[in-house]
Design goal:
It is built from 5 helices and 2 strands. It is mainly alpha-helical. The chain has a two-stranded antiparallel ribbon with strand order 1-2. The longest helix is centred in the C-terminal third of the chain and has 17 residues. The radius of gyration is 18 Å and the shape is globular. About 15% of the residues are buried.
Length: about 160
């Protein structure tokens, strides 16, 4: 089950944080189709956000086809966002965990790490992602011989842009 954490100093609305944390759990395989999300009451107790905030996040995720609200039963995952390489035993995930540990040991804070990753992704995308395999990738495509997945479509309406 996912445990939501709300960063009140981030400037990101709490309902967006709930949606993003759920999407992250779906991408990482932490949440799977059929799993039940915490009740709005449980999220409110854990995060001290307004119940309407939680319900808005859940409604947005339902509109995006990620979850289904079943009256009297709860909210259940209906779609996975997991891709190859996100599994707990993935070599990519292990390499990223090692890199993250090195970055943190050098004194980089969470925001610094996220900025580095975002900058690297932006640079990769600007070079025409997928046009050439990585030098360390002998199979091509960067996912152990699997074709690159299509770019994800954002289906959840967000009212907050991040710089």
């Amino acid at each position: 089950m996912v445990e939501y954490r709300i960063d009140r100093g981030s400037g990101v609305p709490a309902y967006v944080q709930i949606v993003e944390q759920t999407e992250r759990a779906l991408r990482m395989g932490t949440l799977k189709v059929g799993d039940k999300l915490p009740t709005a009451k449980e999220v409110v107790a854990a995060t001290a956000v307004n119940p309407n905030t939680v319900l808005r996040a859940y409604r947005d995720m339902e509109a995006a086809g990620l979850v289904e609200l079943r009256r009297g039963l709860g909210t259940f995952v209906t779609r996975s966002l997991a891709r190859p390489g996100a599994e707990d035993d993935s070599p990519l995930r292990a390499e990223l965990a090692d890199w993250t540990a090195r970055a943190r040991r050098t004194g980089l804070e969470r925001a610094d790490v996220l900025a580095l990753i975002t900058a690297a992704l932006d640079a990769y995308d600007a070079q025409g992602a997928g046009t050439a395999p990585d030098a360390h990738d002998t199979q091509g495509g960067g996912t152990g011989g699997h074709p690159a997945p299509p770019a994800p479509r954002t289906t959840i309406r967000r009212t907050h842009d991040r710089a």
